[in-house]
Amino acid sequence: MTEATVATSQTSSDVIARPELSSDDGKVNLLIAMTDLWKTYDMGAEKVHALHGVTFSVRRGEYLAITGPSGSGKSTLMNLVGCLDTPSKGEYWLNGKNVSDMDDDELARIRNQEVGFVFQTFNLLARATALHNVELPLIYGGIPGAKRHEMAKQALAAVDLTDRMMHRPNELSGGQRQRVAIARALVNHPSILLADEPTGALDTATSYDIMNLFEKLYEGGNTIILVTHEHDIAARARRVISIRDGQIEKDETIR
Amino acid sequence: MFPRSDSQPEAPGYAFGRRISLPPRLRSFPVFRIAAIWEAFLVAAASLRQNKLRTSLTLIGIIVGVTAVIAVVTIIKGLDQTVASTFSSQGSTVFTISKRPQVITSREDFIKFNKRKDVVREDAEAIFRSCTACWRTGIAVNSFEIAKHGDQKYEGARLRAVMPAAMFEIDGVSIDAGRLWTESEGAAARDICVVGPDIITNLFPDVPVERAVGQDIWASGHKYTIIGVLQPLGKIFGASRDNQIYIPYANYEKNFGAHSSVVVFVQTETAPQLEQAEDQARAIMRNRRGKTFRDEDDGFALETQDVFLNLYSSATSNIYIVTIGVSAISLVVGGIVVMNIMLVSVTERTKEIGIRKAVGARRTDILTQFLIEAVTVTAIGGALGVLTGFAVAWLIALLIGFPLLFSVWSAALGVSTSSIVGVISGLWPAWRAARLDPIEALRSE
């Protein structure tokens, strides 16, 4: 049980009531449970099904890649996994909480506590220092100042950026920026680390460094979900889910 | 590196501290959002610093609005104060008794008042004898006349026949050159006068006041010798109060007859005695007119200087409200400027809003951020506007010549009003920002 589930007692009782989670497989470690997930966009005259009937689950500590060509629905799936959006139909349980019908502010809280985002274009605040960028999730998480600094500094130390703490993004290289973003994603100890094309804006050597960092984080017990269309990047994961036309085409454990 | 505590529950490597496990409801309580509010402040300050041109344009919009309002309010308060102190130069110890009140609002009243008995010098003498609370008593008659000296002519002279000489003290005037007349000179109905400085400047141009003493002037066909010149009282609403020609009342009776109604002036020694003196004088006057307690109308008008003040405030209060209202329009324009700038700011920072939302900012966090930005700029603009408003009022007061009252109250009003303008005009842009879809916002450039 994580501290978060302890803190929200009403959802932990929901967890017990769910039959899917109480089946054989040591279900306490089931982090993501998606059941028949649909996402439909209403484009005026016609309805576009970006996802139809996606079902999969992720256990704590997995290293998963979601891959597929553009237009396959993998971005839509990523937005749902990252709680940036809610499904039109189906259920999504993240860390024992049903997030499929949460409102905006509840989702914001889930993103703050459970999800660490790493984006292709880093998405750092341009005018803030690396330290402040890393502190951002803690600020919205209501962590008091001294503790916040401490946590952010440790997260930056973990990605080897202690000496770059007070630099702004435009004073950092691409690889350094992505490491700041990773520190920001990790600082709040999220349940999942969700990386969307994390090497898409980086050169080969830097990509390699970043992927090694993910490897280490995986070995440290973090759950990582990588969204990418590059096969060699996806190949670094332990399990690959291929999406095509809004459905899971393949779900294979590769290592 | 980054081992997770829940996969290795006893792991010492979990060095980041524990999650604060306040229940979510408690956590979203404003008190626990201090960090987010402070962040909003920092972001607002940084944003205002970084967009200097935009910030100064917004500031100017607010400053102009607040300046207009503060200047108008300050000037009005100054004028009010001037008027109040002018009218009370006679002091709150003086009241008058006359046939007609000084302010008549209808034709019916005018006719009614005209039917009353004249107030005569015997009335004043009765009050002087019987009113114990009264200190000084006198009578005065006014008429506007043309004053002449040689070929110089002055059309605005106010012939004021008074008795006794204590009327000078009741009127609050004092001598500048020459002298006042003695009681015996006054009683002897001599052809002498004491004049205000306007008479000298108009009839004796370029003659020093000392040299005007002893000269003769003509008023309404009679000749008077100037024995004294008064110190100036100044103007009120552009009208001079220094145009008097004081003559002894006995002389007026001799030259014009005792037909007209006089005004009785009564002064008490101290302000608290005024009410008692009024009651006594009223009783004496009613008695002399044979009024019983059943008669509602006194048959005369007993008034204090408040009559003027009341008339003044009732005449000007609507003008003031309209003036302040018109100047407040510029504040509305300032608010629109703020709203416009805030909308631009929200559009420019869509990506930033997306990032903040992705890492857990709620609607209220974003709303607060932009509201604080709007309020910060309008509050600063308000404070600067108060200063420039005072400066403008001071300049105008300097040009026209009246004292000013700079009050903390109006400064606070200026800052708080502009802050409220900030909240109102920042609300819609902030609400738009708060409602942005994080996915869309992250996608924008």
Number of helices of chain A: 9
Q: How many helices of chain B does DSSP assign?
A: 16
What level of helicity do the residues of chain A show?
25-40%
Overall pLDDT of chain A: 87
- Derived structural class of chain A: alpha/beta
Major sheet attributes of chain B:
6 strands, mixed, barrel
Largest interface: A-B, 55 and 45 residues
Overall spatial form of chain B? elongated
Task: Describe the protein's architecture and organization.
The complex is a heterodimer of chains A (255) and B (445). With 255 residues, chain A is of the alpha/beta class. Chain A has one domain (3-253): P-loop containing nucleotide triphosphate hydrolases (Rossmann fold, 3-Layer(aba) Sandwich), CATH 3.40.50. In chain A, 36% of the residues lie in helices and 27% in strands. Chain A has helices spanning 3-7, 9-17, 74-81, 104-114, 130-140, 145-158, 174-186, 204-219, 231-234, and strands spanning 30-43, 46-59, 63-67, 89-94, 97-98, 115-118, 192-196, 223-228, 239-244, 247-253. In chain A, the strands form two sheets. A six-stranded mixed β-sheet of chain A has the order 6-7-8-3-9-10, sandwiched between helices. Chain A has a four-stranded antiparallel β-sheet with strand order 2-1-4-5, with helices on both faces. The radius of gyration of chain A is 18 Å and the shape is globular. Residues 1-27 of chain A have low confidence and may be disordered. With 445 residues, chain B is an alpha+beta fold. Chain B folds into two domains: 31-83 and 312-443, no CATH class; 94-304, no CATH class. In chain B, 54% of the residues lie in helices and 16% in strands. Chain B has a six-stranded mixed barrel. In chain B, strands 8-9 form a two-stranded antiparallel ribbon. In chain B, a hairpin with a 2-residue loop joins strand 2 (136-149) and strand 3. In chain B, helix 3 crosses helix 14 (363-400). Chains A and B meet through helix 1, helix 4, helix 5, helix 6 and helix 8 of A and helix 2, helix 13, helix 14 and helix 16 of B.
